[in-house]
Amino acid sequence: MPLAVRRLVAKGLGTVILLLTLTPLYRVLDRPESGSFGEGTIIRASTHLQTALWGTVLAVGVGGLFAFLFGTQGQRDRLASVGAAATRVSATRWALVCGVVAAGLASAAHLLVFDGFPSLVDEMSTLLSARAMASGRLAIPLPEATAAWVIPNTLMTPAGWVSQYPPMSPLLLALGYLLGAPGLVGPLLLGLGVGVTVLVAARLLPDQPAVVRLAGFLLAVSPFLLLIGAGYLSHVPAATFTALAIYATLRARDGAWTWSIVTGIAAGLLVTTRPWIGLVLGVAFPTAIWLERTVRGRTPRWWVSRAFGATLGGLPFAVGLVWYDTTLYGSALTMGYDVAYGPAHALGFHADPWGNVYGPLEALGYSAANLLTLGVYLLESPVPTVPLVALFLLASRRLPDGVWILLGWALLPVVANTAYWHHGFHLGPRMLYEAAPAWIVLTALGAIGLTRRDTTS
Hints:
The chain has helices at about 5-20, 35-70, 75-85, 90-110, 120-135, 170-180, 185-205, 210-220, 225-230, 235-255, 260-270, 275-295, 300-330, 335-340, 360-375, 385-395, 400-415, 435-450; strands at about 155, 160-165, 350, 355-360. The chain is mostly helical. Helix 3 (about 75-85) crosses helix 8, helix 10 packs antiparallel against helix 11 and helix 11 (about 260-270) packs antiparallel against helix 12. The chain starts with a helix and ends in an 8-residue tail after the last helix.
């Protein structure tokens, strides 16, 4: 892609992101057809918009005043010395340290904030299937009075009582039950995901070691990542498998095709955890990354070898998912969502299971609210992170190639979720959890890039 076109695309993306996050576009949900979900989103997003705008005004105002009164060279020198010390640590060791810190902080939150309990009915539902799997069953048998037992997001099948969710997240928690610590599954997976994300950043931004080190630190202390990572939601393993899939994709792109087998394994884990986002980030995204390299000079055979490896790695998971769905729901292409809610749960524009309309306006409104809220919750900083990334895109003269992959990782879930009626909010915009690591790396890049006098990266 020519440099002029890249600049135009970057500025276009920056403009769109700013419009979505710093204007009340979410108010398109203010109509009866959007129902209570739309009403609640407007109330929440209005508060978040005020927080974002006033936080930015106060932070920039106070920071500008201090810079005018006391200058910035001293702070620059101190930050430069800290950055230099951090970059002396290898990327691999930094990834390990950040992963351990994230796992430790999430474990502390699990024990001290949540007291080890689930905080959402989705988690309760997943734990139900996890207990069944830990006992060697796919479902829990119940007495005849099932109405006294069934909770939301669960259903009864001929095999018994099950969660509506795909099998991988309950299976991982079942392993936790067998080891006596299901509550540590989320924190450990988060730590792994943070470490792998640092390695991804190091490969994508090899000339920006300070950015990689700052990104690792922010990943390890992000309240959004930590609090959801402290629980039992399927978003946590999905985020980890996404990072692993992208890392293996880059290794296969730059080296041996055998890494594509790892890509397929990670994609299989991701699809059997969260199918829609798995197909987008675990299948379509690696395919696009390899195709881009093929267009730039590789032979079709090069791409076919990677596609073959990914298929080989993912095939056992596809077979396992077909067996699971067929056993519980009677069809290879039927999932628990379909049995629990019927066609109203499907992707696309239609009435949701509660009768609320989900059309293009709702897709725009919920997406804007999600990005706005993500900017506020990601680091809980005075300056919202997502608009900061947008400003960096607008100010940059040239973006490194790796930034485009980070943007794909960050934005593809936003686009994919426009086709899904449910934009859940719990401890933040959780439907963007799998994209959050990429947004944090971009935030680190923007924070450092915007302070340079020559914003060229």
